[in-house]
Amino acid sequence: MTNLLLEAYGVDKTVPDGTARRQVLKDCNLTLAAGEIVGIMGPSGCGKTTLLDIVAGLQVPDRGQVYLRGTPLDYTKPASLPPIRREHIGFLSQGYGLLPDESAYENLVLPLRFQKPTPPRKEWRALAEEKLEQVGLDVALEKKINRLSGGEKQRLALARALMRNPQILIADEPSSALDWGRTQHLIELFAQLAGQGTGVLLATHDPLLAAACHRVQNLETL
């Protein structure tokens, strides 16, 4: 496959389980190409979130290798991973990762504060409004996160993941707090991003979302 953005080969991972450890991923392989939407499905506990975290450089595999645009992620140098992630990946976690006491605006522009070069501050508000419109969210930028509904938080977190137009969007259960209509909007957004060359990797239980993927990879509970 050409234009590969992400590759993972032979990934193993165990996690703490009481006094022992439980294996959640075993010899797992994954690829994501530019313009492709790939879904990860499987029962709870099968390692979907763990796999997304590993390819985003948020967790370290016990074995295996992950490549970003052909370059291996060096998990032995943790400080090297955040800059790579910030440059190439937009990440939407299940817990959203929003700052609850801050405004929607402050949450949205957080990625811009770490961007090099940093966009002019006079452009930040327009960028924030553009991304809110892109995800179909109509909220005041001054509104505090703790006053938003679950679905609003989810879409705001997605807007933040898109603030720097990443080459790769990784989303963990992105429709879990959305109704049917907003899920349809999400599907259209992912198709639009893929059409622009973005690679979209998502974990989901949602059959509607899965049906919109170019490929679906099923993980089994070990």
Automatic annotation (TrEMBL):
<keyword id="KW-0547">Nucleotide-binding</keyword>
<keyword id="KW-0067">ATP-binding</keyword>
<dbReference type="InterPro" id="IPR015854">
    <property type="entry name" value="ABC_transpr_LolD-like"/>
</dbReference>
<dbReference type="InterPro" id="IPR017911">
    <property type="entry name" value="MacB-like_ATP-bd"/>
</dbReference>
<protein>
    <submittedName>
        <fullName>ABC transporter ATP-binding protein</fullName>
    </submittedName>
</protein>
<keyword id="KW-0813">Transport</keyword>
<dbReference type="InterPro" id="IPR003439">
    <property type="entry name" value="ABC_transporter-like_ATP-bd"/>
</dbReference>
<dbReference type="Pfam" id="PF00005">
    <property type="entry name" value="ABC_tran"/>
</dbReference>
<feature type="domain" description="ABC transporter">
    <location>
        <begin position="6"/>
        <end position="220"/>
    </location>
</feature>
<dbReference type="InterPro" id="IPR003593">
    <property type="entry name" value="AAA+_ATPase"/>
</dbReference>
<dbReference type="InterPro" id="IPR027417">
    <property type="entry name" value="P-loop_NTPase"/>
</dbReference>
<dbReference type="GO" id="GO:0005524">
    <property type="term" value="F:ATP binding"/>
</dbReference>
<dbReference type="InterPro" id="IPR017871">
    <property type="entry name" value="ABC_transporter-like_CS"/>
</dbReference>
